[in-house]
Amino acid sequence: MSVFTVGLTLRVKRDFKPIAQRFGVAAVLPVALFALFLMLAGVAPIDTFAAMLQSSVGSSYGIGEVLVRAAPFALTALAAVIPARAGLLNVGAEGQLVCGGLGVAAMAFALGDVSPAGIPLLIVAGMAGGAAWAGIAGVLRTKLQLSETISTLLLNYIGYLLVAHVLQGPLKDPASFNWPYSAPLSDALRFATLLGSRVNVGMLLAPLAAGVLAVLLFRTYWGLNLRVTGGNPQAARRAGINVPRTYLTVMLIAGALAGLAGVLQVMGVEGRLRPTSGVGFGYAGFLAAWMVGHHPIWVLLSALLLAAIAVSGDALQITAGLPASSINILTALVLLGVLARGRAQSRG
Amino acid sequence: MVVTDSGATGGDQGSLPVPLLEARGVTIRFGDLVANQDVDFSIYPGEIHAILGENGAGKSTILKSLFGVYHPQAGSFFKEGHPIRIHSPADARSLGMGMVFQDLRLVPAFTVLENIALANSRNASLDLGRLRGRITALAERYHLTVDPDVPVWQLDLAGRQRVEIVKVLLTGANIILLDEPTSVLALSEVDAFLAMLRRLRDEGHAIVMVTHKMREVLACAGRVTVMRAGRVVHTTNSLEGLNEDELVRLMIGDWAPTGITGRPAVTRAGEPVLRVDNLSVKDDKGRLILSEVNLTLEAGEIIGVAGISGNGQRELAEALLGLRPLSAGRIIAHDETLSGAPAAAFLNAGIASIPQNPREEGVVPGLTVLEHFAYDGLPRREHRMQVDWAALSADFAAAPAVDELNVPEPGRVAATLSGGNVQRMMVARALARRPRVMVASYPTQGLDIATTQRLMALLLGLRGHGCGVLLFSEDLSELYQVADVLVVVTHGRMLGPFDPVKIPAYDVAGLMVAGDGYRSNRLGHPLEVPA
Predict the structure, then answer these.
(1) CA distance B117 to A64
(2) How far is CA B146 from the centre of its chain?
(3) If 0-12 CB within 10 Å is exposed, 13-18 middle and 19+ buried, where does residue B41 land?
(4) What is the enclosing helix (H) or strand (E) of A227?
(5) B284, B321, B348, B375: which to substitute to probe chain A, counting the most A Cβ within 10 Å?
(6) Which end of chain A is more exposed for a tag (fewer CB within 10 A), N or C?
(7) Which fold does the domain B2-16+48-63+89-252 belong to in CATH?
(8) pLDDT of residue B102
C-alpha cells in the first residue's frame, strides 16, 4: 500500500514539473518577444498589454468571449492529446471540426423544424462527422501504413473544400442572399445561452470531455493499454494488445472530439455553418495540447490562455492601430516556445 | 599469492611507466546511491585492462565518468601525469578516448555507412565513397564482418556492436572503453572478438573492458581491477596465479554461489504442451530463415535451443508467440491450433515469454514497474471499471520471483532502470503469468552470477510445476545445466533432439558453427541427426 502511495506521489511530481516548465517557456518568453515586436512597431507595449488584458479578462463580456473560444480549443486539443498518448500525431482537428459542423448542418437540414429533442441527434451527427473524417486517416494508417501526420494534415484542406462545396450546393440557405451559408438553426435547436452573451450550456461539454478522458486514460485498463501502445508498440504487441485497432479507435475518438468543437461553434455560437466556421481552431488546439505535454486536464488551461490571446487581438486593432491578425505573431511565438522547450527536453 | 599486492593504491608502479590515463579518488553519487566510492583506476598504453564485478558494482559508472558522461562529486583525472578535466564525451574524444556503450547508440533506420557518417558529421565534407572504403579496410584488418549498406535495424546485437567498434576506431581513438562488449556476442564470436582486442593492443591501443565473465579476463587481460559495491576491492598488475575461482571470490566477496550442481534427474512426465509441425518462418528481409522445424515440448520439460544468434532464434520465438506469421506449418498448444491466431490467443493459451531485447520489445520508458506488471503479467484487477492499483500492488508483492529476483520497487519508472533491473522485471513479469509454456530468449543477459543462478533455479522450479520451457541461449554451460533436451538451430534448420547426457558440448558447438555437415573429430563421421 505505502509503496503504491510512493508511486503515486512520484507520478504527480514527475508530471507537474515539466508542465510548469513548458508553460513557463511557452508563455512568458513569447510575451517578452511580442513586447519587442510592439516596440518596433512604435506602440507602447505596456499600454497595449493592458488593453489586451482589459479586452479579454477585464470585463464580464471579455471573459465570456474567452470562454466561448476556449471551449472548442480545449476539444480540438483533446483531439490531439488522445492520439498522441497512443503514439499518433493528429494534425487534422481542423478538417474534423468542419466536418463535424457539416454533420450538424446536414442533420438539421434532414430533420427540418423540430423540437429541442433534436439536439442530441445534432450532437451525435456532429461527432460522427468528425469521427468519419478522422477515420479515413485511421484506416489509411492501419491498412496502408500511411503516416497519419501527413494524411490528417492534407485532409484538412479537403475538408475545407468539401464544406465550401456543400454550402454552395445542397445545404445553401436560399434566403441567404447568395452567401454560402447553411440555413440558420431554429432557436429550439441551439444551446441555451447565458444572459444574452454567447456563453452557452454546450461549452460544458469541454471540461466534461476532459474529465472523462482523464479518467479513461489514467485510471482504466483501456487507457493503460493505450499508453503502452504509445510508449512502445512492440511491447504492446507482445502483451496481446491489438495495436491497429487501438490506432483506429483513438482516431475515431479524436475526430468525434474535434467534431464536437464544430457542434459548439454551429449550435452554440454561430447558429449556422459558414465556410469560415471554426477555421484555425484545430491548429490552436494542437498547440494547446503540446503546451501541456498532452495532459487531458491541463489542456483546459492552455486552451484558456490561447483563447485569451485570440480574443485580445481585437484590442490591438482598436488601441494600437495594428491589424487584429498581428496577434498571430504572439500565437506563433508561443508555438516556437513550445518547440524550443520540446527540443531542449529531448536533448537533455 | 601474487595477487595480494594492490598495484593502483601505491604511487610507485615499479616497471610500469606513467599511466596514459588515470582516475584518482573518484566518487559518484546518484541521490542516496553511492555508485563509485574513492575509485582509483589507471590505464597504460598497449594493455587490456579488465574491470570485473557484479551488476551494480559500479563498473559502468567509472567507465562513463572517464568518458565525461557522469561528473564525479570528488576525484581527479590525469593524462600522462598531467591533470585534466573531462566535462563531456566531446572532451573525452579529444583526449583520444572512444567508448562502446552497453546499449548501442545507432539509428535503426539508417544504414551502417550512414550511422558511421553521422558520427563523423563534424567533418565539413562527407565523402561517402571514401568512408565506405575506410570501413571495409578497417573491417578486413580486424576481421570484423561489417556490410556498410545494410540498415542497422536488420542487424542483430553483435552486428550492431561491430558497427560501434568500427565507429570508434575510425575516430582514431587510442583509448577504447568497452562496456560489457561480449554480452551481445555469440559464443563463437567471443574468441574472434578477443583476438581483435589483442590485435588492437599490439598496435598500441589501450583497452578498458568491463565484464563479469572471468574466462574472458583470463584469456586476454593484462591487468584486472575488481569492483564490489562501488569500491575497488582489488587491482593487480599481473594475472599470474589468478584462476577463475579466485576471481569469483573477489567479485562476490565471501558469499559462495550455492547454485545448481549438475543437472537434476530427468522426470519427463508429461503430455505435450506445445507442438510445432513443419514450421517455416521468414526474417524481416523476407528470406526463409528457418524451415521444417518440428518440436514437441512436454509438460515439465526444458528444451535448450542452442545456436549462434541470428540463425532464426528471434524469428522462431516470435512465431511461437503469435508475433510473426508462419510461411508454413502449424503451432498447437494443448490440442488448440494457434497458428494464424492473434498474439492474445497465444497468451491466453498460457504461453509467456522473456524477450531477447527487453528495452526494445518489452519496456515502456515512461511507465512504472507496477504499470508494466499491470498491462502484462498480473491478472486484471478492476474496481468500478477502474484499475485497482491497491489490489495490483498486493498481487505484485505476492507474485512469484518478485522477491527472489529482487525486482525494483513498483513505483520506479522504467526509464531509470539499469539493464540488469530491466531484465529482472521482464523475467518476474513472465513468471507472474504462471505460464504453461515459457519461451525464454537469452534470459540471463545482463544478470550477475548470483541472479543467473537464481533464475536457473526458477526455470527448474517452473519445470517442476509442469511448465514446458523453451530456453534460447548461446551459453552452453547454461544449457547443459538445466536442459532435458537440446536442439541446435543452425543454417536454416533445427537439429536434434539430443540428449545432453550423451552429446558432448564440443559437438554441440561444432553443430552451431558448421551445421549438419559437422564431423566430430573424435567420432570421425557425421553426427547422427535424428529426424
Answers:
(1) 57
(2) 20
(3) buried
(4) helix A221-231
(5) B375
(6) C
(7) Rossmann fold (3.40.50)
(8) 76
Name the residue with higher pLDDT: A314 or B92: B92
Per-residue pLDDT tens over the stretch B444-493: 877 777 788 888 888 998 898 889 999 998 777 788 888 999 999 987 88
Could you tell me the CA-to-CA distances from B404 to A328, B110, B439 in Å, in that order?
59, 41, 20
Q: How many Å apart are CA A4 and CA A15, to the nearest integer? A: 17
Distance of alpha carbon A210 from the chain centroid: 11
- A4 and B411 within 8 Å at the Cβ level: the answer is yes
Place of cell 442533420: A107
A227 at B interface, C-beta within 8 A = yes
The predicted structure's pLDDT at residue B514: 62
Residues in B touching A13 (Cβ below 8 Å): none
Task: Give residues 229 to 258 of A whose Cβ lies within 8 Å of B.
Answer: 231-232, 234-235, 237-242
Please measure the distance between the N-terminal and C-terminal CA atoms of chain A and give it in whole angstroms: 33
pLDDT for position A57: 85
Q: Which of B360, B380, B390 sits opposite A4 (nearest CB)?
A: B390
Nearest to A6 among B365, B366, B411 (CB): B411
Q: How many CB atoms lie within 10 A of CB B219?
A: 17
Q: Where are the domains of chain A?
A: 68-311
Interface contact B375-A221, CB threshold 8 A: yes
Shortest alpha-carbon distance between residue B307 and chain A (Å):
23
The secondary structure of residue A200, as a DSSP letter, is B
* Residue B53 CB partners (closer than 8 Å, separation 6+): B59, B212, B226, B227, B228, B251
- CB–CB of B344 and A240 under 8 A? yes
Supply the pTM of this predicted model.
0.72
Of B346, B361, B387, the CB nearest to A221: B387
Q: Which fold has domain A68-311?
A: ABC transporter involved in vitamin B12 uptake, BtuC (1.10.3470)
pLDDT tier at A25 (50, 70, 90 boundaries)? Answer: low
- CA angle in degrees (0–180, nearest 5) for B141-B142-B146: 95
What's the average model confidence in pLDDT over A242-261?
Answer: 97
Residues of B in contact with A8 (CB under 8 A): 389, 411
Residues of B at the A interface (Cβ-Cβ below 8 Å)?
321, 323, 342-344, 346-348, 353, 355, 360-368, 370-371, 374-376, 380, 382, 385-387, 389-390, 393-394, 397, 409-411, 413
Distances (CA, A) of B158 to B173, B180, B308, B355: 21, 12, 10, 16
Residue spans of the domains in chain B: they are 2-16+48-63+89-252, 272-364+416-517
Minimal Cβ distance to A237: which of B343, B366, B394: B343
Q: How many CB pairs under 8 A join A and B?
A: 94
Question: What's the rounded Cα separation, in Å, for the pair A99 and A77?
Answer: 17
Cα nearest neighbour of A12 on chain B? B411
Q: What percent of chain B has pLDDT over 90?
A: 33
Query: In which band, very low, low, confident or very high, does the pLDDT at B403 lie, cut at 50, 70 and 90?
Result: confident
Alpha-carbon gap: B392 to the closest alpha carbon of chain A (Å):
9
pLDDT tens profile A268-294: 999 999 999 999 999 999 999 988 889
CATH of B272-364+416-517, one of 3.20.20.80, 3.30.70.980, 3.40.50.300, 3.40.50.620: 3.40.50.300
Q: Which amino acid is at B66?
A: L
In this structure, what DSSP letter does residue B108 have?
T
Q: How far A245 CA sits from the closest chain B CA (Å)?
A: 12
